[in-house]
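Record DNA-directed RNA polymerase subunit, 121 aa.
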Amino acid sequence: MSAIGSLLFCTDCGNLLQNSSADPTNFLFCDVCGARNKDAAPGTVISESKPSAFPSSLRAKRSAVQTLTAEDRKTEAIAQHTCAKCGRKEMYFSAVQLRSADEGSTIFYRCVCGYKETTNN
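=>
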């Protein structure tokens, strides 16, 4: 009989044995080949590895301290909205929910010339 952790296997065919009583004086019979195997107490296998042993970009993203780049913080999109100051046809915008959930959001527009405008939906 072979044991891996708490699993017991037949020494002849490798089949998983059932109904272990953890008494070494008992025998377990294999359902596949009929071989007689000694019963054994289940063992506990504990293994540990350092997080640095298996580097992962996902694990790095889950760390407590994250470094954000300027590109990560950029949440603006471009809209077809005319700037009141320079007349440019496109402005950057971002939508933020500043009031309660049943009210509209606030749209912040920003032009490359520096002009800023807000609109409440």
